[in-house]
Amino acid sequence: MNKFLSALDTSVADAPLRPLLYTAGAAATAAGIYYYVKRDGKTTTSDSEVTTEDPVCDWATEPALLQPMEVPLDQVTNAVTEAEEKIQKLVMSNTQLEERVRELEELLCEARRDGMKSKASQAEAEEKHQKAEETITQLEEEKSDLTKQGCERDQEADSILQVENKKMKKTLMDKEELLKVFLIEAEEKHQKALETIAQLEVDKSDLTKQLETLQDMWILLGEAHRECDKLKAEETMLSQLEVVKSDQKDQVSHGIVQNMEHLLTAFILILFFLSLFIIRTKCLSSTT
């Protein structure tokens, strides 16, 4: 019994189920002591340390308790029967307690194994956590470096963009100035073109008038040609009249013929000057 209790005590010393195991051990111990007392009729137990240290066991030294007592047989029999029943119940309870203790020991072993596994898992988790923290620290450093590099690149890009922007602004300003110059030149050319067109319109009008004048002069020239033809015809007639006159000189007397010749010559001259006056008048009217 002492070995069992010592084994039970050492097996459950560090377990969280210690109170329950102590209770089970105490009950088993009490049942064993009661069983031994009833069986042997003695007041001592196999455990000498318990009997010597328990003050209940000092009743044998008192004289009044050493005197025999008369107890009825039926009462004793009933008491023994009840005691045996109680002992049987205690034995059964002890067996159940032992089974429960074994189950608890198995659970305790499993709990210890689980604890060891959990410790290993915890150590692994702590190691992973440490690695994760180191990785996070490294990533933060890399992030900081990348951020610095990004800032530097942004600054470089900003400076490059500013330079390009200045260049583009200068180029645009130069192009704008050139466009202004081109626009002014185009406006001047357009103005000159308008003036040229206006001058051409004036020249066209003058040429049209000159053309009309030429047409009128051409008409007058045609009329002059016709008048010239008429004059030529008249001259021919005059020639013929001269021939006739020369022929008549022989037939008519000298005085009459001379008078007629003078009259005819005067008539011809009058006709000639009249034709020239008509032609000049038409030319002057066409020019005006």
UniProtKB/TrEMBL annotation:
It comes from the Eukaryota. The chain crosses the membrane at residues 20-37, 263-279. Signal peptide: none annotated. Keywords: Coiled coil, Membrane, Transmembrane, Transmembrane helix. Residues 73-149, 183-217 form a coiled coil. This is Golgin subfamily A member 6-like protein 3 isoform X2. It comes from Ictalurus punctatus (Channel catfish).
